Amino acid sequence: MKAILATSAGAQPGDTPVPRPEPDQILVRVGAASLNRADLSGVAAKDGKVIGMEWAGEIAGVGSAVTEWRPGDRVMCTGTGAYAEYAVTDRGRAMRIPDGIAFEEATVLMLACQTMHNAIVTAGRMQRGETLMIHGASSGVGLMGMQIGKLLGAGAVIGTSTNSARRSRLQEFGADYALDASAPEWVERILDATAGKGVDVIVDQVSGPAFNQTMKTCAKLGRIVNVGRLGGSEGVVDFNWHALRRISYTGVTFRTRSVDEIRDLTALMARDLSAAIAERKLRLPIDRVFPLEQAAAALDRMSSNAHFGKIVLSVPA
């Protein structure tokens, strides 16, 4: 099959055998794959493996222990080896694509919904009426987080972005307030927006040296969920602020989760969000669609940070 491999020359087209599903896996004929920043690390590995972690397509085969899926089902998935004509994943890492939604639209939804539902609902424990801030909101995952917060009854949704053009669009995706986190007064503006209380749930995609400022925007007994480190993986922490606000801080990643954990979080996400996905209440803008063989150009566009929304690879049948 045709695939995009991580080589010493970067992301390159190549041929590789069609993967075989293990007993608990499904084999999917890929119709479209979505780019994610983690794919850049996959390219850098130069290990000859197929790149990509998110795709949509039609099931072509199932493992011997799979009973809930069958060939012909249209699914959106997360896993590994997405930039290819075929990919396999665990039976619990797929979600049915509603009728009328194309593969290019579906492929951008799965990882963002998994990540943000888990961060907001499970780790963040957001209750209806509480305030939610997505710190670093102009990414695809961030845009989805604001929409999920609004859907699930957040009292107010705050999105931050240091890019003025992207910040101007955050209200299209659920933000009640769109703030520049690089502005000197941004903490005061958030406190003003919350009548001095601070934010109940913060999904932090920035981290780094700015973390103390982030803590200052948090309410007493607030929850900060770390899902990204765009500002850096290290910083000096003022533990006095952490203690004074009695903040609960949780870090989340897929890399250390078991198969059962990912199955559970996917099932919870599908329970809460399937209807909204089918009704197109949750959506992500598609910046550009590239053919599979132009994956290197698509990755370059993502790396240059020139896009708003998601970049997609189309995989023709």
From TrEMBL:
Domain Enoyl reductase (ER): from-to ranges: 6-313
Sequence intervals crossing the membrane: none
SMART domains: PKS_ER
Matches recorded under SUPFAM superfamilies: GroES-like, NAD(P)-binding Rossmann-fold domains
Keywords: NADP, Oxidoreductase
Tree of life domain: Bacteria
Protein name (Swiss-Prot/TrEMBL): Zinc-binding dehydrogenase
Organism: Paraburkholderia podalyriae
Lineage: Bacteria, Pseudomonadati, Pseudomonadota, Betaproteobacteria, Burkholderiales
